[in-house]
Amino acid sequence: MKTAVYPGSFDPATNGHLDIIRRSACQVEHLIVGVLNNVNKSSLFTIDERVKLLEALTKDLPNVEIRSFSGLLVDFMEKVSANLIIRGFRAVSDFEFEIQLAQTNHSLNPNIETIFFVTKNEYSFLSSSVVREVAMFGGDVSQMVHPITVTYLKDKYESMEE
């Protein structure tokens, strides 16, 4: 059985992330969306909130599983018996960083390969940080994220004002 991991912070998951999840889920038998708990990074949503949100967003995809992890991706992949990493390119500027990551992961574990999906044009400008900033200032993010995510963002920023 071919198991792949699509890793990321997903803080929050954008329509671009969801597109990569849907497209890659069609290519593998089992897709694990690995939600990274990066202790060196300040996140808007907790790890549990990000996992819960992604579970809601992917509930219609029976071969997709959402799991959190921390530490090295290659260690997580060994734990879940996966040897294929899914990554997305938004622009040419992503290429150098993504190639470096793929080569590093492959050097740490030669059995791990990386497959790249090119983001659709309509999502090429999207990033979680852009979504967070627009939402923080009350801007309309409904074209950038799923309606469920819009609600999560509104609730989060409202609770921060209290």
Indicate the low-confidence ranges by residue numbers: none
Average pLDDT works out at: 93
| Shape, per Cα inertia axes | globular
Number of helices: 6
What is the CATH architecture assignment?
3-Layer(aba) Sandwich
Distance between the termini: 48 Å
Q: Oligomeric status of the shown chains?
A: single chain
Q: What is the level 1 CATH name? A: Alpha Beta
In short:
By secondary structure, this protein is an alpha/beta fold.
Your description of this structure?
By secondary structure, this protein is α/β, with parallel strands linked by helices. It has one domain (3-124): HUPs (Rossmann fold, 3-Layer(aba) Sandwich). The chain has six helices and five strands, in the order βαβαβαβαβαα. It has helices spanning 15-25, 47-57, 73-79, 92-108, 128-136, 147-161, and strands at residues 3-8, 30-36, 64-69, 84-89, 113-118. A five-stranded parallel beta sheet has the order 3-2-1-4-5, with helices on both faces. The model has no long low-confidence stretch (mean pLDDT 93).
Notable features of this structure?
162 residues; alpha/beta; Rossmann fold; five-stranded parallel sheet; 6 helices; 43% helix
